[in-house]
Design goal:
With 189 residues, the chain is mostly helical. It has six helices and no strands.
Length: 189
């Protein structure tokens, strides 16, 4: 579902850029776009540096642990794709910047529209993939929270169970015996 939405939004944006945004006007946005895409790549590299979370793996539910590690590997693969897509977009924007608006104005109208659409589509794809990975990271953090809270609850339950068992054992050790209770008497008797 998310991929289909990304594809549709990217194609719609590319079409809109090709139809309504002249390439000459895009040249003014290249420098901020290059900075923005560079920041996205830097953020992905910072996230890649984190790797797997440092948890006490033995205390976690094995199925949930496998789900977490699979999610982390999957989102890390997405990071690789984001870096690749951003690298293509950055290379294209830098190349167009080097070519310059004057030389690009000599291209045919169709080529200028295709280039404008490609720029709009690539930048949209970069932003959409980044948003998707942020959403995935939030899901992974929620799963980590669930695992950590579950492990902590199990430890607390085990401690309370051990404490209750100790108290029961000490009560039994006192050798308390039941006492015969006589039925109550009436006031007048």
């Amino acid at each position: 579902m998310a991929r289909a939405t990304t594809i549709i939004v990217t194609l719609l944006t590319a079409t809109l850029f090709a139809w309504a945004v002249p390439l000459a006007r895009l040249y003014g946005a290249f420098q901020p776009l290059i900075v923005t895409l560079s920041i996205m790549v830097a953020a992905v590299f910072v996230r890649l540096n984190r790797g797997m979370p440092a948890l006490e793996w033995k205390s976690l539910d094995p199925d949930k642990r496998k789900e977490l590690t699979a999610s982390i590997v999957s989102v890390t693969t997405e990071y690789g794709w984001i870096i690749g897509i951003n690298a293509v977009a950055l290379a294209g924007l830098v190349t167009l910047s080097v070519i310059g608006a004057t030389d690009a104005a000599l291209w045919s109208e169709g080529v200028r529209r295709i280039v404008a659409g490609t720029v709009g589509g690539l930048v949209t794809l970069c932003a959409a993939r980044m948003a998707y990975v942020v959403w995935r990271d939030i899901d992974i953090v929620r799963l980590q929270k669930h695992l950590i809270d579950g492990a902590a609850s199990r430890e607390t339950d085990e401690r309370e169970r051990a404490l209750a068992d100790d108290k029961l054992a000490s009560m039994r050790a006192t050798n308390v015996r039941p006492v015969d209770i006589k039925p109550p008497k009436a006031w007048g008797e």
